[in-house]
Design brief:
Blueprint (H helix, E strand, L loop, with lengths): L2 H29 L13 E13 L4 E12 L4 E6 L2 E8 L2 E3 L2 E2 L8 E6 L6 E8 L6 E4 L11 E4 L20 E8 L5 E4 L12 E10 L6 E4 L1 E7 L2 E6 H10 L3 H12 L7 E5 L8 E2 L4 E4 L12 H8 L7 E3 L5 H20 L1 H21 L18 H4 L3 H17 L1 H14 L3 E3 L1 H14 L7 H6 L13 H14 L5 H5 L5 H9 L9 H9 L7 H13 L7 H11 L3 H13 L3 H11 L5 H11 L4
Parallel strand pairs: 1-11, 16-17, 17-19, 20-21
Antiparallel strand pairs: 1-2, 2-8, 3-7, 4-5, 4-8, 6-7, 9-10, 10-14, 11-13, 12-14, 15-16, 18-19
Helix pairs in contact: 3-4, 3-5, 4-5, 5-6, 5-8, 6-8, 8-9, 9-10, 12-14, 14-16, 16-18, 17-19, 18-19, 18-20
The protein binds ligand BES and zinc ion.
Ligand BES binds next to strand 18 and helix 4.
Length: about 625
């Protein structure tokens, strides 16, 4: 070998070594996308496991305790966490106390919490307590519960609220496993998004384990006087005693839903699927906390008519919890896929027509949302740009309904068989990882479109505003019947009494009420309520859309104003209450809205409060 060749050989070896390390580094750098809603720098130092040891103090309405993380780093000299409105007491690295730094407080993001480490540091521990500004937590007094005997605590982590009750690297990309020890008053039971107790114990101490890595927004805790009732060996419900039988009846099909979901997109990855029905101030319909969906009691209708919500939260066990949006700009990957999957589960259990009714309601929601956002067309894109915004404000129903329409259009283009094997493989291949919109688009192009030689305007759907021209048409025969009745009733060729006698399910009634035209002949609206009594509907969904219409039609009969106020005082579900307050606002009744809201606000969770404060232009 000449000197020259030798040198080249050495260079080659050097390059192989250094190029491969470079590649490794770039690989790791690449594995966490830039998330503008977290201060954490997971490419440098990342938490992999959490040991949470906390005490829930119902007197002071705070949580105190310690979060200990097992960490991994690449030559970093510090690890950065997110913290918002927390009191940080002390921090430790491998059990030795170290000084920490808290960054400036941002109203949306909170503060960075920086802790010095070395390359050999293994664990970081943070002792802290929450404050009265802790947005994730809602402490309820006994009066706000079903049984009215004991207080209650619930948490809501999505989107960026986990950092308000646990100092954490609060980006959906930072997946971690956790162990938790939670101490609560002896009369209460604690449950989490983890392996759960099925009975209250004498000590008030509960231990939890989440063995699979999950995103921080999915860490959840509920504390109350709860009981458990099994539906099948792997599904069941938690609720307060006075509710448990009703809840058990309502959700009796849960096991069948899990089976239908597994038949579609592969084995359920989380072993147990339970639902806890919370007090009515819970701000969402449902929240897909792994192993333990949180649900509003407003879906306990008595006739199983609102259970698509359970199908939705179950579907998140794949789209969301298994394959997770990398940042909140990719939120549609969670919700669009979940709505599509929800419809498929409902179709498998209750038939195509039922699913089409649900899809048609979503289609109308989408048209309404696009109309609402006519001045902000950018907000109607699937891929969002929420930098500088509170992600919770920017996440509208576009992700759900346009996301659904995109996937349904895709299904109709490639055929169901190909769509299903594509989705099944997508979930299998990316299980327990996070996904950016761009990575998904590349995967979709390669694995579905190019392979099958199909042309599809993916970029238009994902990166452009509005609804593309090739959108699937959603038709429901049962809604066509409703449209006929609606038009006959409006034209007075059909009496209100006959309208109420129709053998309609909830979706049809919702469709009817929502589509009552703004302009009606005098007395028609009153007569409708006299005959059908929608004002006193016990189904929360019917009540909500009826209240909206009552406001739009300046209707005050049947004690509706009082019933509406009672509803707003009791229910804190954001979608419901914001629909009603918005109707007040749009109909020059801002003062009524403000008067009721001033009384109801203390009953609402912070996420509902934020939305309604903004909407009504108030702050307290
Ligand atoms: N994950 C969402 C709730 C959520 C979204 C919380 C964004 C925080 C930020 C949940 O799966 C959901 O979509 N719930 C819906 C019900 C569903 C049937 C559309 C709700 O709460 O209304
Ligand atoms: Zn959802």
């Amino acid at each position: 070998m000449t000197i020259f060749k030798k040198a080249a050989f050495v260079l080659l070896i050097l390059c192989v070594v250094s190029c491969s390390t470079n590649e490794k580094e770039t690989k790791q750098m690449k594995s966490y996308a830039n998330d503008t809603h977290s201060y954490a720098k997971p490419n440098e130092a990342v938490a992999k496991h959490l040991l949470l040891d906390i005490d829930v103090d119902f007197e002071k309405k705070i949580i105190t305790g310690t979060a200990t993380y097992t960490i991994e780093s690449t030559n970093a000299s510090e690890i950065v966490f997110d913290a918002k409105n927390l009191k940080i007491h002390k921090t430790f690295v491998d059990e030795k106390e170290v000084a920490f730094t808290l960054g400036a407080n941002d109203l949306i993001l909170g503060q960075s919490l920086t802790i010095p480490i070395t390359s050999s540091s293994k664990s970081v521990s943070i002792s802290y307590e929450t404050t009265d500004k802790t947005e994730a937590l809602q402490f309820l007094n006994p009066q706000q519960t079903a049984d009215k005997k004991h207080p209650f605590l619930l948490t809501q982590g999505q989107a960026i609220l986990t950092r308000t009750w646990i100092p954490i690297q609060d980006s959906p990309q930072v997946r971690l496993t956790y162990l938790a020890k939670v101490k609560v008053p002896k009369a209460l039971m604690a449950i989490m998004s983890a392996e759960n107790p099925k009975e209250k114990n004498e000590t008030g101490q509960y231990s939890f384990e989440m063995k699979q890595p999950i995103s921080p927004y999915l860490i959840a805790l509920a504390v109350g006087d709860l009981v458990y009732k099994e539906i099948s060996p792997r599904t069941g419900v938690y609720a307060e005693k006075s509710m448990i039988d009703k809840v058990h009846y309502e959700f009796a099909d849960m096991e069948k839903m899990v089976e239908a979901a597994e038949n579609l997109y592969g084995t359920y990855a989380w072993d147990q699927f339970d639902v806890v029905v919370l007090p009515p101030s819970f701000p969402f319909g449902g929240m897909e906390n792994p192993r333990l969906t949180f649900a509003t009691p407003t879906v306990i209708a008595g006739d199983r008519s609102l259970t698509s919500l359970i199908a939705h939260e179950l579907a998140h066990s794949w789209s969301g919890n298994l394959v997770t949006n990398a940042t909140w700009n990719d939120f549609w990957l969670n919700e669009g896929f979940t709505v599509y999957f929800e419809m498929r589960i409902m179709e498998a259990l209750y038939g195509k027509e039922y699913a089409n009714m649900l899809a048609s309601i979503g289609r109308q929601d989408l048209a309404d949302e696009i109309e609402n956002l006519r001045d902000q067309p950018k907000a109607t894109r699937l891929k969002l740009d929420l930098q500088g915004e509170n992600p919770d404000d920017g996440m509208n129903s576009i992700a759900y309904d346009k996301g659904y329409l995109f996937l349904r259009t895709l299904e109709e283009t490639v055929g169901r068989e190909k769509m299903d094997s594509f989705l099944k493989e997508y979930f299998r291949k990316h299980a327990f990882s996070t996904m950016t919109t761009e990575t998904f688009v590349a995967y979709l192009n390669a694995e579905l479109l190019v392979k099958n030689n199909v042309e599809f305007n993916v970029d238009e759907w994902i990166y452009k505003a509005g609804i593309p021209g090739n959108a699937a048409k959603i038709n429901s025969d049962k809604f066509k019947e409703v449209n006929m009745v609606l038009s006959n009733w409006k034209d007075k060729t059909m009496e209100a009494k006959e309208v109420c006698e129709q053998d309609w399910n909830i979706q049809q009634k919702i469709h009817f009420i929502r589509n009552i035209p703004k302009e009606l002949d005098d007395g028609l609206f009153e007569k409708l309520d006299e005959a059908c009594n929608f004002s006193t509907a016990t189904n929360s969904y019917i009540a909500m859309v009826w209240f909206e219409q009552a406001i739009n039609h300046d209707y005050h009969g049947n004690n509706v104003d009082q019933l509406m106020e009672d509803f707003l005082m009791k229910v804190g579900r954001r979608w419901y209450v914001s629909t009603i307050y918005k109707a007040f606002k749009n109909n020059n009744r801002l003062e009524d809205a403000k008067r009721i809201y001033a009384k109801a606000r203390p009953n609402y969770h912070s996420v509902t409060v934020n939305t309604i404060d903004d909407m009504l232009g108030v702050s307290y």
